[in-house]
């Protein structure tokens, strides 16, 4: 065989970059010495493999195995999925989630409204309409602006169109949206639309 002598200047053994000793230590730590030794001897990987979940849990850190055979109901299954690996977490109820979502929406809407009211530049309002698979038509309002050198897009509103969207209906929807936001740059578009449709501004 070939003998390699790798030593430092002072005579200490030099580390071998191609050595697999660290990998072997890691494999023994993860899968155990018996598995690593069996692979070194050439035993096939699937020979003697125990794929039961009990063996997997028992092998992981030699901790005791706690298994429940009780059938999960749907709410329990949802909570188990959300708290998997983090049993200290508490899943809030649906009313709590609904209340928090409403509070977050209202706070975000106030911040966006304040940003639009205080914005010095030009605001570009766009609409996007589409038909859902159940043949209901929807229209979304978006506003585009540039804030601190970065383009921003906000979804302002989304609503279902109850009838064929003529210019008259479009202006009524625009009026309703303006009455809630009071954005100055939107007021000009509203006046032009009202004049074109023959409606009076209120």
TrEMBL record:
Compartment(s) of residence: Nucleus
One GO CC term, this protein: nucleus
Keyword Endoplasmic reticulum: no
Keywords: Metal-binding, Nucleus, Zinc, Zinc-finger
InterPro entries per the UniProt record, alphabetical: ZnF_BED_domain_contain
GO molecular function: zinc ion binding
Entry keyword annotation includes Calcium: no
Span list, region Disordered: 1-24
The name this protein goes by in its record: Uncharacterized protein
UniProt organism field: Mycena pura
Species lineage: Eukaryota, Fungi, Dikarya, Basidiomycota, Agaricomycotina
